[in-house]
Amino acid sequence: MHLVQLTDIHIGREGEDTRGVDVRANFGQALQRIASLQPDHLVLSGDLCYMDGEAGIYAWIREQMESLGIPFSAIPGNHDQSALLAEGLGLANRLKNGELYYDQSWGSWLVLFLDSARGFLSPGQKHWLSQQLYSHGSHPVLVFIHHPPCLAGVPYMDSRYALQDRDEVLAILGDHAASVELFCGHYHVEKSLRIGRVGIHITPSTFFQIDMHQEAFSIDHYRIGFRQIWLQGERLLSTMWWG
């Protein structure tokens, strides 16, 4: 199975100044390239809106996705509103007490989509996560979440915008009997880490990339990127596309 993860697209209202970056054009460029690749599925992993979740922006994104014609899933980021995103993208039946988290099965892989829009996972969501991992036994698990469940060596983001309950979430993931491959965004960098059996892959934005060496906010560059993922039995391969 061939997947694409697209994250931190930060779509603003039509004509809105988004730091001088044409985020809609960037999104369109990424979708054009994705269309040529013809993946089996596309995952939008949060921060779909520029600043705050808006129904009109989600409706516009859905139009682009339906025009693309590739099945897709979505989760919210800290610049999204979970219920509005779910309603706008046809995922309202996945809401649980205002959070958008759910599961799918792709071959032998259990795929979990988590909601970290509030900067943490609710106790109910963490219990659900633990139960899902337990029920999948010794098979590998694929996880999509907006925030990395750890500090990632990006000083500006680590010190200000890290997942609040990251240690608890990482402990739940690390207790799984087999490997967990987790794909996230939020940090506007490309980076991969492994902590025990948990592989953490941070995918860059289609907005801008943050300088991962600076304590103060600093833009490294404006190249856009997305991640390709292949599931081959219980084997996973991943590579980046840069625009």
Please specify the SSE layout and strand pairing.
Blueprint lengths: L1 E5 L16 H15 L3 E5 L9 H14 L3 E4 L6 H7 L6 E2 L2 E2 L1 E5 L2 E5 L9 H13 L5 E4 L10 H6 L5 H9 L5 E5 L6 E5 L2 E5 L6 E2 L8 E3 L3 E8 L2 E8 L1
Parallel strand pairs: 1-2, 2-3, 7-8, 8-9, 9-11
Antiparallel strand pairs: 1-14, 4-5, 6-7, 10-11, 12-13, 14-15
Helix pairs in contact: 2-3
Name the overall outline. globular
Any idea of the CATH topology? Purple Acid Phosphatase, chain A, domain 2
Helix content: 25-40%
Give the total of beta strands.
15
Provide the CATH architecture. Answer: 4-Layer Sandwich
Give the H and E element order: EHEHEHEEEEHEHHEEEEEEE
Strand content: 25-35%
Largest sheet strand order = 6-7-8-9-11-10
Number of helices: 6
Radius of gyration, in Å, reads: 17 Å
Oligomer: single chain
Task: State the end-to-end distance.
Answer: 23 Å
Question: What is the CATH first-level class name?
Answer: Alpha Beta
Mean pLDDT: 97
In short:
The protein has 243 residues and is of the alpha/beta class. It has six helices and 15 strands.
Descriptive key words:
243 residues; alpha/beta; Purple Acid Phosphatase, chain A, domain 2; 5-stranded mixed sheet; 6 helices; 15 strands; globular
Task: Write structural notes for this entry.
The protein is of the alpha/beta class and 243 residues long. The chain has one domain: Metallo-dependent phosphatases (Purple Acid Phosphatase, chain A, domain 2). 26% of the residues lie in helices and 28% in strands. The protein has helices at residues 23-37, 55-68, 82-88, 123-135, 155-160, 166-174; strands at residues 2-6, 41-45, 72-75, 95-96, 99-100, 102-106, 109-113, 141-144, 180-184, 191-195, 198-202, 209-210, 219-221, 225-232, 235-242. It has a six-stranded mixed sheet with strand order 6-7-8-9-11-10, covered by helices on one side. Strands 3-2-1-14-15 form a five-stranded mixed sheet. β6 (102-106) and β7 (109-113) form a beta hairpin. α2 (55-68) crosses α3 (82-88). The protein is globular and about 50 Å long. The two termini are 23 Å apart. The mean pLDDT is 97.
